[in-house]
What does this fold into?
Amino acid sequence: MNKNNFRNLIATALAAALLAGCASNKTDDTSGSQAGSDPYGASGYQSGSATAYDQASADAAALASLQRVFYFDFDKSELRPEVQAELDKYVNILRNSNQSIRLEGHADERGTTEYNLALGERRANSVAQYLLVNGVSRDRIEVVSYGEERPAAIGHDDAAHAQNRRVEVILR
Amino acid sequence: MSLRYAFVVLLMLLANASWAQLTIQITQGRDNATPIAVVPFGWNGTGQLSEDVAAIIAADLQRSGLFAPMDRRDMLSLPTQGSEVVYQDWRALKVDYLLIGRMVPFQNGYTAQYELFDVLNQRPLLTGHEQGYRDSLREVAHRIADRVYEQLTGIRGAFNTRLLYVSRLRDASGQYTYRLLMADADGAREQVLRTQREPLMSPSWSPDAQSIAYVSFETGRPAIYIENLRTRQRQQITNFSGLNSSPVWSPDGRRMAMVLSKDGNPEVYVMDLATRELTRITNHFAIDTEPSWTPDGRSLLFTSDRGGRPQIYRATLGSNKVERVSFEGDYNARARMLPDASGMVMVHRAYGNFNIALQLLNRRYFQVLTKTQLDESPSIAPNGAMLIYATLHQGRTILAAVSIDGGTRYLLPSRFGDVREPAWSPFLDRR
It folds into this structure.
């Protein structure tokens, strides 16, 4: 996870750098380490298009404030009614920005590993589909299923299972 | 009993850098197991042997459930040559069969010479020898056990085989470490093949047992890899968007069935391994997954929820024929065909629990084989006599085995972590 997060940070930073680089001739004050440690801040860049960058930064901050985990019923991939309002917030940001997300689908331990892998993908696809039909561009969304391989909660009771049947939104 | 403890202690002594460390606990044997005496093998050479070959043979035979090896301490004599056998002694001890042997130095290794006797009829049944080096004495023992088992049951022994499995360890911060492991079928000599933070899944064997396939998430997304066990050369064979899962070699080793969701939905495909050409086998909006070859290589069993709940279906290759083959209960998944194609084992849900069940195909015969909790990933020994699976035991996932008639059971608990997705190798010895 750490490595992934780090990679996400780098990717975000690179995207930000690219954005800044397009608009102006960059001066010599950017370095990889600064970009990595300060992915959302504009401090490391001098950009002629401050508005675009500020917008990206604001979008990222807005995404970061949203609910990141959505839960599902046993052997089901339908969205629960109450999550739609929360997903609408993602729609509003993603429809008008360059931010992208990764949807990681998960299943509880009951049933076979490979069927659960497919079930996790179906859950992540349910979330993706909701975003797509509401106007989010497909290239903003990546879907990966982990099936029952990465449970959030240890334990083998109903409470643990409920915690593990989920889709996690990872900001890229 | 003491033999089994000796065996467990032996395993513990042998395990140095062990991650899952499987040690066998027999939980159910048979009342009618055949009594046999496996006498400690003679050794007149210098130094001590690295393995107690007779103890390994006895443990193999005991694990099959078909034999009850007698306690060494109750033996009246310890013959190592046919001329030293006094049948009356063994009749008095009520053993039906007697196995004796001796280890003889041979070049840089050893020859194990063995003789099997029918005590009741007072005649020799089998003599033979196996050669090995210091580090392959366990194979020598398993090969002898295979010969004895075949002589007495008519079924080829599968003791000289291996297991692949995945261990999952969660640390205090909630991060996971996944390991792909390989061990002998009795849990000994465990080796770590891969260690990584991202999941490893679905290990499977090539029919010649030279290579393995598995799914790794090491790039952040699942992909199918093939690795040669001898050269350790590895190649990524799929990298499609979506699922890349469930790799299984065809019986002829030339094709691989797999599940891809690149077209939006999990479907079963067959890849020609030489050309990498894909043939789509299923075409349905439901989940289609967990393919498994029939022994003739002409059809695939797979799991589909196209009927609303997961059930087992069979697709005949080269035709559009798909038929449902599981009917008992509302959840049947991950079928594996018996080597003689007479039936299949699968994960079956009944009363909210998941168990391994056997269904014979031409007869309406159905039997739940396991009594443990959350059982999954059945994998059948190449001789069809036992199957290994993953089960929840005292809060952790461990491996367990059951005979195909449900009569014998044993657990292979690990010291730590969850141990999952066992795959029993094909026969390692060519015939």
